[in-house]
Design goal:
two-stranded antiparallel ribbon; 5 helices; mainly beta; Porin; 21 strands
Amino acid sequence: MRRGVFLVAIGLLGTAGAHAAEVRLQGLWRTRVEAWRWFEVPGYQSRYTYGHSLFRLGLHWHHGPHEAVLEVAGVALLHVPTRAVAPSPAGQLGLGGTLQAVNGGRDASVFPKQFFYRWRSGSLTLRVGRWEFGDGTEGGLDHPRLVWIRQNRIAHRILGSFGFSPVQRSFDGLLMKYTGSGTTATALAAWPTRGVFDLQAYAPLTRVVVGYGSLTAERKFPARVLEGRLFSLVYWDERRVLKVDNRPVGERMADSAAVRIFTVGAHGVAVGDGSGLRWDALVWAAAQWGRWGTLRHAAYAAALEGGLQADWPGRPWVRLGAFLGSGDADSRDGTHGTFIPGPNTPRLYALIPFYNLSNVMDGFVQVLLSPHRRVRFRADLHRLALHRTGDLWYAGGGAYDDRTWGLAGRPSSGFRELATVADANLVVTLGRGWRLEIYHGTAWPGPVIRALYPQGGRLHFTFLEVQASR
């Protein structure tokens, strides 16, 4: 199928001149320098700095209802640490350790990022090939605060491209979308590709299948905007790799059965404009059932958030929220109770990506400022705890190759409190497609972390990113 789509796209591009079609070249270059100071582990690189660069170049062809895209990506890693993976349970000491563990000495690659054909007729859109996707992005209203909430607090929770990672992820398959008056219906069936941290990102994970469907409705009134979505996800994983859960390693090694998880959920957002004061509210919830190998699977997750924005200088916006992703209470009861998203983008919800949405309770406050139309500032304070002390402390964004499960799990040692996190993020749009981002975050360890890293210390994560698009 993929070869056929590629040949069709080439044929369409070749007829561009004869049919006066629109052809354009688009590019993106992103480079980032990351500095990690992980919790101390004697004899290993808990402190290091490395860089990575991503270049994407795409040819876009458009004529009438037809559109084809061919895009190639190149990734380079610079000065990745060589001793940032400690023995279990300390594990990988930040994302530099992950890159080293996955790629060894490999430091660059070039691969097809997207190649798809899209057909549009009235309200219907069909797309086949390789493309990027994030759940929760189906809405079309462009209210600025709704767009921010959609992009930062809804999108990619259960299915996403992990755009923050050096390599990122795409999906090979079929996407259908129907857009009516304030309503959008979406359905896809796809294989996620390799990537995220694995430089060999050219091939799909053919033993992992995802199916997603959603119905999104939006309404705009004079003083408020409403958005609601029903969604479902099927995650089918037949890779024969060691599962990450709270069972003893011997039981996990003996369990080669497939994972089949069904997720259903909904979200609702309300954004209101008052006199001198604006408000917003968000609720998101999901339930899961199915099989986790030989175990029955039953899990859930929920988020509740709200905010106020004042018409003062800098347009200060203060938001409060809480999230719960269920954990497994008992590894011996035959039921796996840990909430497991599909291949997603966890960094949106964990700006220091040392945890994810599994077995976690997250209470937070956010402050956002816009002192200038090209300057955005955000500061967060999070209090993190494990939902079930009998489960693990999880990190990672799901499947990205055929050798590891895509999650890291460390023991709780019977404790609940994970960490307190404070961070700040500054984004400056420089014009002509240039963008600068500076981030720093600090995590103060709780008993869960101190039991694993008795040498103490705080986690610090800092990066400087420059991005240019054309």
